[in-house]
Amino acid sequence: MMTAVEKTTEMHALWQERFERIKKAINLEPVDRPPVIYMGVAFAPRYMGMSIADFCEDPEAALNVTLAAMDKMGGWDGANLPGGGRITPALTSMWLSRLLVPGRDLPSDSLWQVKEAEVLTVEDYDTILNKGWSAFLQEYLPRVIDLHEFMDFVHWNMQNAQRRWELYRDKGYVIVCDAAVNVTIPFEYLCGGRSMTKFFFDLYRMPDKVQAVMDVILEDLLAQIKAAPRPAGIGGTWLGGWRAASAMVAPKLWDRFVWPYYLKLVEALVDQGITPVLHWDQDWTRDLVRLQELPAKKCILNPDGMTDVKKFKELVGDRMAMMGDVPASMLAAGTPDDVHAYVEDLIQTFGGTGLLVCPGCDAPINARPENMQAIVDTVHSHDKVVS
């Protein structure tokens, strides 16, 4: 039987092997097989028999149950995002919207829900212009979340970032998004706070004011990035997009209010040695060619099953890796054979370089465990195929 020291040494060696595999995939270098990356926020507690209410309330429980789910299934090289911390304040910080929380506003084993409503007002645009983004957020956040709850979330994450990274490493798991900064484009913050309908009207009715507000927000985000410490691991960070997707926004608006902000944020992150993980939900196929404008081998596309990944491979497969993208619908309603066929097609499409296999966006709460297992098993069937 191994001693604790021997077991730790073995896990650290496994972590290093997986780390090198993931780095090579990001750099578009040949790998022995594609890395297989876990993403299943609500899947983990449901799979392990924990209530969603407990998962949302207890940051330690969220951390432990995520690692337990990965251990139980086995074979994952790492995780897209680390488990731990409270998910609902994290989502509030990105959406600037109220969330309905299981065990408080909803039944204890249901999924959290974003409450779509106008909270950020047109008058708030002037406040942002006059006071700046950070000052405005201090005034705004109590409208959508209890401030003590939010600060507890911030403090837990600050105090446990290193420990959480070490817990993953000690189990041999590499965290892809491990950088100490997390931003998205101004479009998404404003769209969440204003509500989608109101914000899209704003883009037409007061475009100059909206752009001025976005520029103020951008300066604050760039300052956050510049102040972020240089990462020690993979150094990825989640640079999300959902309502700004090509399928949702007219080209003229997208070219003005979406893409220029991605360009500037990506350039700032890369300058800090951080790898932007473009966690893009919905369909971005129309504008995939614009990814050619980003620094080569410095970013990862992380789609959700709706973007045409074969078009991505054709247009920018020599410049950027992809992490994805087994669709949530397939994981919930498909069969292991469906998943196997999908993953096999991904592997053949990418031909041994530039692919990290992962659930698209996030494995849903009702993903079938055998379908998640099929992701892992299919990838491992390619062990040592590529030299």
Question: Describe it for me?
Answer:
By secondary structure, the chain is an alpha/beta fold. It has helices spanning 4-26, 43-48, 52-57, 59-73, 87-95, 122-131, 133-140, 147-170, 186-194, 196-205, 207-227, 251-257, 259-271, 309-316, 328-333, 336-350, 369-380; strands at 37-38, 78-79, 99-100, 113-114, 174-175, 236-238, 275-280, 300-303, 321-326, 355-359. It has a 5-stranded parallel beta sheet. A 3-stranded parallel beta sheet has the order 1-2-5. A two-stranded antiparallel ribbon has the order 3-4. It is globular. The two termini are 33 Å apart.
List keywords for this structure.
alpha/beta, 17 helices, single chain, 52% helix, 5-stranded parallel beta sheet, TIM Barrel, globular, 387 residues
How many domain modules?
A: 1
Oligomer: single chain
Average predicted local confidence, pLDDT: 96
Form type = globular
Quick overview:
This protein is an alpha/beta fold. It is built from 17 helices and ten strands.
Give me the secondary-structure topology.
Layout (H helix, E strand, L loop, with lengths): L3 H23 L10 E2 L4 H6 L3 H6 L1 H15 L4 E2 L7 H9 L3 E2 L12 E2 L7 H10 L1 H8 L6 H24 L3 E2 L10 H9 L1 H10 L1 H21 L8 E3 L12 H7 L1 H13 L3 E6 L19 E4 L5 H8 L4 E6 L1 H6 L2 H15 L4 E5 L9 H12 L7
